[in-house]
Amino acid sequence: MSLFEELIEDKELDGKIVKSFKTKDTLSNEIFEKVEGGFKMHNDVREKLLEISDNFIDTLGVEFFIHDVVLTGSLSNYNWSNFSDVDLHIIIDFDEIVDGDSDSESFKTIFKEFFDAKERVFNEKYNLKIKGYDVEIYVQDINQAHVSSGVYSVLNDEWIVSPEKKNPKIDDNKILEKSEEYIKKIDDLISKFESNDDVTNETSNLYKKIKTFRQSGLESGGEYSYENLTFKLLRRNGYIGKLLKLKTDIVDKKLSITQ
User: Fold this and answer.
1) Which of 10, 70, 104, 157: CA 20 to 30 A from 54?
2) Which long-range contacts (CB under 8 A, 24 or more apart) does 242-246 make?
3) Structure confidence by residue, pLDDT tens digits, 150-179
4) Residues 41, 31: contact at Cβ < 8 Å?
């Protein structure tokens, strides 16, 4: 396949991803069933998600009180699509872990990094799927506000935040234009790295910028903000993964002797 054909294919994929952000008439019938008064998670799905969460908790090697296990993200909402992930969050209380220690914020940061590392290892090691959807597992502090407008307690088999069908105006062109800006920056950094340029600071700064960009959108406009949808596009087309891999490759290179 020529470079031109690859570019056209990438453009078409990005366009399909953006179209997938549109709201549906119902929740995913693979995950939920219609019942009187709303939707309830299929029992086989719920049991498997609890089994997955138990397996992940076992990998931690440390005992924590689990306040809840929840499904959040697009699969607990009307904007699900074939690009969606099963976002499974393990809810714990960081304040309980530090137990009032005077240096509690420092300890919370350490524990957050510990959980982040465990999540990455688990998610990369296992290719878990529920009804064809990839499973992504996270640890979330109970004090962290719910951003998603749909949150389902898998543990208690009930809605914490019931989703409401909305028809937000999504500016496809704005999302595609902004994503192309980040795609070019990521591709440029990868190219410079492959040419043996030191892109440590540039890569770190771009990663922080994208995270801040998304967070500002979530805080001001919610999950349908163009900032969050741009981030979702970059994640679904693989560019967030490319940026994370670049960060890892930079560390590998710095800590290795090649000759």
Assistant:
1) 104
2) 242/186, 242/190, 243/186, 243/189, 243/203, 243/206, 243/207, 243/210, 244/207, 246/186, 246/189, 246/190, 246/193, 246/199, 246/203
3) 999 999 999 999 998 888 888 889 999 999
4) yes
Contact 92, 139 (CB under 8 A): yes
| pLDDT tens digits along 11-43 | 677 778 888 888 899 999 999 999 998 999 999
Tokens of 98: 């530090």
Asked if 145 and 161 touch (Cβ cutoff 8 Å), the reply is: no
Q: What is the pTM of this model?
A: 0.79
Task: State how far the Cα of 138 lies from the Cα of 115, in Å rounded to an integer.
Answer: 8
Q: In which element (H, E) is residue 44 found?
A: helix 43-60
Angle 134-136-140 from CA coordinates, rounded to 5°: 160
Please tell me the distance from the alpha carbon of residue 91 to that of residue 109, in angstroms, as a whole number: 16
List the domain boundaries for the chain: 3-19+170-254, 32-161
Domain spanning 32-161: CATH 3.30.460: yes
